[in-house]
Design a protein that fits this description.
mainly alpha; two-stranded antiparallel sheet; 2 strands; about 70% helix; elongated; disordered N terminus
Length: about 675
């Protein structure tokens, strides 16, 4: 009986005919003998540990990186969701999309980090790298589990961990969703293999585990909706018998996937992410885009050169796309023909090819989303299929009956290639050091594309706002202006640079030019988000001119984008100036509820309450404001009036002196002298 048990497969504990058993041996599904040497016994720990260390050594340079202006502002630095992990805050995290994306687990990871270090970027980068290393280890586990070939698992995992195309997901903090969803996605695949091979009660425990991991993956990034198809592919590789029960057991997975998919499409549409610079693309255009993207992902898997953070759609000249795009469907057809002709009988080629295709299919821009035709982060999970085939090919040289010397040469070559990929990955991580380094790299590689110039112009505008030296301010202004106008010159119909240029003008007091820029941008950019921001900026201009149009602009801003705390805060200030205190306090309350981390609503509402002699309520707002920004002199000066009104001149004087020490210059001298008496 023991001999019969040894002939059972680990793909469901069923008897197999001789031919099938031979194929199983070929795929190395059979369990390894227990009585092996120390190295062999612990290789499944030592090898992945070595890969983890190598990955860490090459990628640890990203720990020096900071935040960038490429979505990090919306996801982290200015995101109110991450600043509150109370039960109410968690409710908001799990109910609110950010930038048109619903990925609450990713946002929760930021919130946990914020609770420890606030906005110190090192911990965010440290965790992103740890997530990536963890995914790399799971890739090793999955491949080893499927094939029984440690060499195949090691090669696949090493290429996965060090490939430069994956660095966008690691070194870019807003790319965190890839490493988080990837962690649960690969874990779900591993759990599915155990489900297939398990018997009795354990089988359904594994099934439940797959469902839980699938939901977690979706909550990190909705692109995980393709997992049910990947599970079917694993069924194929494990040689499960194809029947209706195989599909029926996937029904819960497909139902969950459809639900999350519909939610994702709705969020993207509402945010305006499906607007591609207002250009209309027909079915043929989309087919060309998909073909171009597929071929590009394939060749960049082997030769990851000229990597960029932004790959724009090609321009339509005279209503037509460049003729060079028409070669890509031909290339795709040639690739499909080759794989079908020479690889359709090879289970490994079919599995690896379809794994790549299934996981990249939704990201090929057949339906254009956003302004980029491809994105390096989209390769994160799909490349596993390509690396799997390479790993299997290399491991074949270490099977019984093969020339081991040739195998060592092939393995050494693959290792050298992987380490070279690690060198390129290290270089790529450094590009993500800051907004300036990122977009300087972009304009160097894409000198005719406006996006890089626009972001560099925005970066210099930020430097202008924080600079104190007049010569520095002039230099930053000139740089920002030149870059923004250059972006506009490359694409006159591109609305975003006009908004930043408008802010540059407004900040320097050139309000006529500022208004012209905002209105021009609004005529070109159609999304609600940009309209709301433009109306807010116009409201700030009009309120500075004591123009009643300010009220119209603030009202329009919050109407277009109700969840806009900055607009509510300024609208409240407008009501305060107009003496409409009830409306003002209501708007301040909305702003604070939407973003408890904003400083201005607390201090401005506190000042208004103090003027209304409601010092008890005002003091609560001032305490909140101090916790957020303890170095603001105006805050202490405003709070001193509450202490003075309550008869505590000592504390009032202390606050005035604190305000002066922080550089606040608008202290009333008579009031100050009166506190000394």
């Amino acid at each position: 009986m023991a001999g019969k048990k040894n002939k059972q497969t680990n793909t469901g504990n069923r008897q197999q005919p001789v031919a099938e058993k031979q194929e199983q041996v070929k795929l190395q599904h059979a369990p390894k003998p227990a009585n092996t040497g120390f190295i062999q016994r612990y290789s499944n720990v030592l090898v992945p540990a070595a890969i983890a260390i190598i990955t860490w050594l090459f990628l640890k340079v990203c720990l020096n990186n900071g935040f960038t202006d490429w979505d990090d502002i919306a996801y982290i630095t200015n995101d109110p969701l991450i600043k509150d992990i109370s039960p109410e805050g968690l409710k908001h995290i799990f109910s609110s999309p950010v930038q048109g994306n619903y990925h609450p687990l990713t946002i929760l990871s930021y919130a946990i980090e914020y609770s420890y270090v606030h906005l110190q970027p090192w911990l965010y980068h440290f965790d992103s790298l740890l997530f990536h290393i963890a995914v790399t280890m799971l890739v090793y586990w999955l491949v080893n589990l499927l094939t029984g070939r440690r060499v195949a698992a090691a090669v696949t995992a090493l290429l996965f961990g060090l490939h430069p195309m994956h660095m966008e997901s690691v070194a870019w903090l807003s790319g965190r969703k890839d490493v988080v969803y990837g962690l649960f996605y690969v874990a779900a695949c591993i759990a599915w293999v155990y489900y297939i091979r398990a018997v009795g009660d354990k089988k359904w425990r594994w099934y439940t585990g797959v469902i839980v991991l699938f939901i977690c993956s979706l909550l990190a990034k909705p692109v995980a909706v393709v997992l049910p198809l990947t599970l079917l592919l694993i069924d194929y590789f494990e040689k499960r018998k194809w029947n209706y029960s195989l599909l029926l057991e996937k029904i819960p997975h497909f139902v969950i996937a459809i639900g999350f998919g519909l939610r994702s499409v709705s969020d993207q549409h509402d945010y305006g992410a499906m607007d591609t610079l207002g250009v209309t693309y027909n079915i043929m255009d989309r087919f060309l885009f998909g073909s171009y993207a597929l071929v590009t992902y394939l060749w960049k898997a082997i030769a990851p050169v000229n990597l960029c953070c932004f790959y724009p759609y090609p321009d339509k000249v005279g209503g037509s796309l460049p003729s060079a795009l028409f070669i890509y469907p031909v290339l795709v057809a040639a690739i499909v023909f080759t794989v079908w002709t020479f690889g359709r009988r090879n289970r490994v080629v079919v599995f690896g090819s379809l794994f790549f295709l299934i996981n990249i299919a939704l990201l090929l821009q057949f339906i254009p989303v956003g302004m980029a035709i491809i994105a390096e982060r989209y390769s994160y999970i799909p490349y596993m299929g390509l690396f799997f085939m390479i790993g299997w090919l290399v491991s074949g040289y270490f099977e019984p009956g093969t020339n081991r010397q040739t195998g060592y040469v092939v393995l050494g070559t693959c290792l050298a290639y992987s380490l070279f990929m690690g060198y390129l990955a290290d270089e790529r991580c450094q590009v993500w050091y800051s907004s300036n380094s990122l977009w300087s790299d972009e304009v160097q590689k894409q000198p005719d594309i406006p996006v890089g110039y626009m972001h560099l112009g925005s970066d210099y505008f930020d430097k202008y706002n924080t600079a104190t030296n007049l010569n520095e301010k002039k230099r930053y202004f000139d740089s920002s202006y030149a870059l923004l106008t250059k972006a506009i010159s490359y694409q006159v119909g591109y609305g975003n640079p006009y908004f930043i240029l408008g802010e540059l003008y407004r900040t320097t007091g050139r309000v006529a030019e500022a208004k012209q820029s905002f209105y021009r941008g609004m005529a070109l950019k159609k999304t609600d988000n940009d309209y709301a921001k433009a109306y807010l900026a116009l409201g700030l201009i009009y309120i500075g001119q004591n123009n009643d149009s300010a009220g119209y602009c603030f009202r329009a801003s919050v109407r277009i984008k109700p969840d806009f705390p900055e607009a509510h805060s300024h609208f409240a200030y407008f009501y305060d100036l107009a003496g409409k205190h009830d409306s003002s306090l209501t708007e301040y309350g909305i702003a604070i509820a939407q973003n408890p981390g904003l400083f201005e609503p607390y201090v401005n509402r506190g000042m208004e309450l103090q003027r209304l002699h409601r010092c008890g309520e005002a003091m609560k707002d001032f305490e909140k404001a101090v916790a957020i920004n303890p170095d603001n002199g105006q805050l202490y000066y405003a709070r001193s009036f509450c202490y003075s009104e309550n008869g505590d001149k000592v504390l009032a004087l202390k606050d005035v002196q604190k305000a002066l020490s922080l550089g606040y210059t608008q202290v009333d001298n008579n009031y100050y002298q009166g506190l000394h008496q």
